[in-house]
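Course assignment 3, question 2. Fill in each field.
Student: A.L.
Task: Predict the tertiary structure for the chain below.
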Amino acid sequence: MPNIKIFSGSSHQDLSQKIADRLGLELSKVMTKKFTNQETCVDIGESVHGEDVYIVQSGCGEINDNLMELLIMINACKIASASRVTAVIPCFPYARQDKKDENRAPISAKLVANMLTIAGADHVITMDLHASQIQGFFDIPVDNLYAEPAVLRWIRENISEWRNCIIVAPDAGGAKRVTSIADRLNVDFALIHKERKKASKVDHMVLVGDVKDRVAILVDDIADTCGTICHAADKLLSAGATRVYAILTHGIFSGPAITRINSACLEAVVVTNTIPQEDKMKHCSKIQVIGIAMILAEAIRKTHNGESVSYLFSHVPL
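Answer field:
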């Protein structure tokens, strides 16, 4: 592939390498460091003049530092006369702050969108945005890819009774996601309605749907402290489900998440590798990882060739 450069930020170099390998390319040279006052410094190690540049940086780890690093890398490539700079952000930072849900609350996802645009990004590729409205925060093209093809394949290959399973949304916001997967598998779906007294703490859950004598598969985009997922698993088992799996796109697993998963009645917690999971897997045998490098690599290839990305990943399993 001529006239293309793939750069990796610090957040997830393993995923960046897998994307480059899939495309048959070498990662381009970049050096990042911090000055003694903790300012981020980026040194682009090769010419990007007239090149189609892709910078892979996920919203994980030291999120604020990694976001600033991404902005600096974008700007460095832009002012070095790159023909186009695409930010490949598998897990979009601040995605849950996507609306003004109380007085004086910030819409931080919109702020991140503005920062990326001002830094010089011409295009953004991301995966399973927490809310599709975030695409509207940008004045540049945004391709929101879906982990659904990889999820469908994992279900068919790893759950022998998948034809008798039921796909469950742990909250109303995930209804569209689970109905799409249920339709592709030709199975039923259910919904858990949850009420919160405050953020990250669920007060009450109501199950809508029949899970009795079925394998229940919880599907969601983000798992942070895992209180919702573990509470939902208990609810499904008490309603007669034979086994419960959780499949998530972005496994943040902060705070008490690993402890909760280890003591929960979940058969497995399956996540994509939009966020590195090696350290978490050492402390929790239930965590399994689905690779999505091939989806991101194919999106980069199609974007570089001027082909459509959205139709492929919303309709055709890999």
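Instructor remarks: Residues 49 and 80 are 6 Å apart (CA to CA). The chain is about 35% helix and 25% strand.
Grade: pending
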